[in-house]
Amino acid sequence: MAYAIVAFCVFLFSGTAFAYLVGATAVIAFLTTGYPQYIAILPQRIFAQLDVFAFMAMPLFILTGELMNRAGVMGSLIDFAMALLGRFKGGLGHVNIMTSLFFSGISGSAVADSAAVSNSLIPAMRERGYPPYYAGALTAASSMIGPIIPPSIIMIIYGGLTGTSVAALFVAGILPGLLLACLLFAFNAWIAHRDDHPGGSTIDIPPLFASFKRAWPALSIPIIILGSIVFGLTTPTEGAALAVIAAILVGWSMGGMSWKVLYSAVEATARLTGSIFIIICSIAVLSYLAGLLGWPQLLAGWIASMGLAGNNYLLLLIFVLLVAGMFMDTPVALTLLVPLLVPTALLQGFNPVHLGIMVCFNLCIGLITPPFGKCLIVVSGIAKINYWNLAKATLPFIGIQLVILLIIAFFPNISLLLPRIFGFNVL
């Protein structure tokens, strides 16, 4: 096993991609721990890990977001958000949050959300006198609504790894996502009055009816996705396919869809889906070795010896996921840690749907947390502002999200209320 650890360190410091790093280290570990004969079974184990119906929805939801982003939908959503909230003090900050809320029902990705909003709103906020680092921090923080409000790519991954209903996870994410949005609205309003941020003038505000008329096709997509799934008309995968068709029609009706846009969206989807799936494959190899070596049982025994059960274990889980999220991509941390840590929580009686929302929200905080917060990197690069100053400006928003995380963790009914209302078996 020492050879595998050395290999891991060598690959890590050489800049090897994470999937190859984990896969190669796992194979070396098979050879050095007395299990070389099991390497022949690895292709079967990998395909078994990927052969999950819920995973089929992931590339389709990614494609939906790519299509809508490239078809110029963001402008219509911003105009409608401006018509609703632009006239209030700190109006563009509210518009920033509302745009992320709208776009979250389409893309399911915080990084895509932060990139789109950074391109469109941060320059406008700077022109109107908002501090650039506040504008960037608000954009990064509000983009975290994306993976919580359905559809959510990481919820699909969690559902596939644990066998939890993706539809129930989607419904469970609505209230936590809205809670995050409401607290961001409240914080932005307080900052706007404290620092005298500008409000929109009547010249800046587009007509409400005209902006809604232009935005409603895009706004209808989240309704199509969620409504068809919640009322049992489609599975999440079928709902994702329906969303792709709707995105193409919406883009075409708005004049932003073309064969070139469709091709580039499919190409981007293939790259992103491939990168996620190869990570899942490499983790499947490591997980198989972990099972052979009895790592889950050792972890469970260590937790039992420490007396970590119930809320104490939940706090440990929160801490581990927070640290992991600071250094690892969300899909990587999810596929690596969920098989190790979540089964113990389930054995202690935690609801898998509630646990899924908590885990996904927990890891997403890492997207805006230094040193490797992906949304911070995206916003910093697009807005051309200093990364570390942006990270400092984001600290109050991280505090808000930590408070929401603890609320979600210790008040499970917030996550489980809507799934119960809509008849999902989450008792």
Give the secondary structure arrangement, pairings included.
Elements: H1 2-13, H2 18-32, H3 42-50, H4 57-70, H5 73-85, H6 91-107, H7 110-120, H8 122-127, H9 132-142, H10 153-162, H11 166-172, H12 174-195, H13 208-230, H14 236-253, H15 259-293, H16 295-305, H17 311-327, H18 330-347, H19 352-364, H20 374-383, H21 387-410, H22 413-421
Helix pairs in contact: 1-2, 2-15, 3-15, 4-14, 4-15, 5-6, 5-13, 6-7, 6-9, 6-12, 7-9, 7-20, 9-20, 9-21, 10-18, 10-19, 11-22, 12-21, 13-14, 15-18, 16-18, 17-18, 17-19, 18-19, 19-21
How large is the count of helical segments?
A: 22
Helix content: over 70%
| Main β-sheet description | none
Task: List the helices and strands in order.
Answer: HHHHHHHHHHHHHHHHHHHHHH
The total strand number stands at 0
The quaternary structure here is single chain
* Rg from alpha-carbon coordinates: 22 Å
Query: Beta-strand level of the residues, as a percent range?
Result: under 5%
Q: How does the helix and strand content classify structurally? A: mainly alpha
Shape: globular
Summarize model confidence as the mean pLDDT.
83
Q: Give start-end ranges of low-pLDDT stretches.
A: none
Number of domains: 1
Straight-line N-to-C gap: 42 Å
What is shown here, in short?
With 427 residues, this protein is mainly α. It has helices at residues 2-13, 18-32, 42-50, 57-70, 73-85, 91-107, 110-120, 122-127, 132-142, 153-162, 166-172, 174-195, 208-230, 236-253, 259-293, 295-305, 311-327, 330-347, 352-364, 374-383, 387-410, 413-421. Helix 6 runs parallel beside helix 9 (132-142) and helix 17 (311-327) runs parallel beside helix 19.
